[in-house]
Design a protein that fits this description.
single chain, mainly alpha, 4 helices, 65% helix, membrane, transmembrane helix
Length: 126
Amino acid sequence: MTPIKHPISVAALSALIVLQLIMLSALYAGIKPHPPVATPLFGIAPFIGASVATALGAMLLTPQTRAGKGLAVLAALMAAASFGPQKYFVPEFPLIWPAVICGQVAIISTIVATFSPASEEITAPA
């Protein structure tokens, strides 16, 4: 069995990846509510792709490394563009609130776990 350090970070980053991939799938499929195609600053699909890649990189490097910590915080901040408190004020909020709340919990969990000492460890099957 392989020990997994920082399981909270791994779980929270996994949640952000899944949420963002579902959003991206809804955008491509045209299923409402889906994110807008673009913002004044960038296209949404490339941004979500970069956000998912950043979260995956953080998971692979683990929050035990300086680079992993940096990527974890960056992934959380990038996810805040999709799930941040500004989403409470969009007209689609009654339809998207489960994803927004889940995303916010994952963002907070990622940041808190990244700066907390490794207090727990779980053992995963080899």
